[in-house]
Amino acid sequence: MNLNELHPLTKKLLENRGITDEKEIEKFLNPSYEKDIYDPFLIYGMEKAVKRIIKAIKSEEVIAIYSDYDCDGVPGGVLFRDFFESIGYKNVLMYIPHRHNEGYGLHNAAIDKLKEQKVSVMVTVDSGIANLEEVDYASSKGIDVIVTDHHLPVHDGKKQVVPKAYCVLNSKQDKCEYPDDMLCGCAVAWKLAVAVLNTLKEEASLVEETKPNAYSLVLQKVKELPEGYEKWFLDLVAISTIADMVPLKNENRTLAYFGLKVLQKTKRHGLNHIFYNQKVSKENLTEDDIAFTIAPRINAASRMGHPIQAHNMLYEKDMKLAEHLVLDLESLNTARKSEVKDVLEEIDFDHSVYKEEVIVVGNEGWTPGILGLIAQKIIEETSKPTFVWGQGEDENILKGSCRSLGDVHVVDLMREVGDILTGFGGHEGAGGFEFEKQKKDELLKAFNEAVKKVEKKEIKNGDILIDEEISFDDVNDVTYNAIKVLAPFGVENPKPTFSFPKVKPLSVRRFGKQMEHLEVLYKKGNSNVKAIKFFADEDLEKKLNEEHKLIAHFEKSFWGGKGELRLRIINVI
Which end of the chain has fewer CB atoms < 10 Å from its terminal CB, N or C? Predict the structure, then answer.
């Protein structure tokens, strides 16, 4: 790549992200499926997992797919279901735990149900790495468990402790030397599907015509699949990669980059109905459409209904049925937004608990499915580690979700209060927990004592990284295209942020059903520049009506079918 051919702004944005080497720039701006997607067999345990699945296919065993209920696990479960269907293997069951009634991870009662259905192999998606006892229980029932997960393994203070499963596929294992340990759960599932498919392809090419049986029919179906068939599953991988907020660099960038291209061509009726109903332009689809349109509707199923509703929406092959499933999710998503709004109106951000280093709030009337959203809203207001609880299915057990900015590892924090919690798990910055109702008054003090014992990272809150100071004359398609080549944006590849100093608007107006959004017009030569802010408060509106420094992203809206270049307001100073 000739760096001199790059737009100066593109070069500056790359430098701001620490990408200056010519080879790194080439890889970043022009991802290659052939060069940048790693061999799935580099994941520790992959060969063993593939052999067991192929043995199950040969023996016509019943395989269960046990997926998580969020926007990582649900697409991953659909991916496996579609994969087995594409190779003609029908002895496959689907299981997704109910968020409220069962909770995250594997459960012995679910394992009993699967055993009753003669399951002998269970493949987890986006879960299982922390289920040491449950995996042992499944093994005792004669079920071989293949764990595919991306969460951190349990640590006993000295070393990692992984389940004694048939095999564990998780690049975060110490013994795994896979080049990228930040894949999402659906991507790990895709790696297993690709490895099985490639192995079957090799075998199919060697086997001559034989007497038809279940396995020979699978091999025949594999022969009929077009070259590169596995790429069609990348729409699901892209949804999970962006929704689960894994870093968009290394292999994840390539998966998201090509996954978005597949998503633009997706034949999934459910997704196409969502795009049509929400007026999303498929050919101009971006990571924002996943984050703000697709993901909330998939997550609404487990938060307000049952996750199988989202699974069926992604899987359904009948156009009319898919439309009904989309409408059901739309209703759940509307209910979710209403409930979150009601809870937030209950919260007083001046309450004394918000003065503590760790925030702990809850109400037995709050639904567990929305607690993560509430915790995120509190984080945005306070920047403090936040634990929010509500009533679980068991009247004696309270369940919760937690968030942090990453300065405090929430799993480490929960581990410190393990004598109070009956269960917990999660990532560095997000997790879930449960505890007995009679201990709810102990949590605030316990967490604030525990936070003194855990390692803290320094995170500068309130400081917005400004990529460049520009003028409204620079708000044009040339600048937009110079930015766009860095997409898709996300964690560790944030949207470029620009400042416009000493500006004053021509007009400020509210819009939306509840007039909750703001549209601002600024003068630019003989034309105007539009800037918008969704869910804007009165303080922001006052600032906008005076001279200010505007901090914003570029975006192009295709609402109504035509592309409109505008600014998305981040802050006003």
Answer: C
